[in-house]
């Protein structure tokens, strides 16, 4: 799956994403749901499990940079 097709997809945090952490998100892709390693897109946000996020960058094969989809 190319980078362009992952960017903009929504997912949910399953393991805390934050500075100095390798978090985890689950994203619906390719007709199913897959887990990806995740980092905060701005490099400083802490995103807790359950938060809906949007993929802003994809580094194949399994790493994404994400931002919270909604302000809390």
UniProtKB/TrEMBL annotation:
Gene3D superfamilies: Nucleic acid-binding proteins. This is Uncharacterized protein. It comes from Streptomyces actinomycinicus.
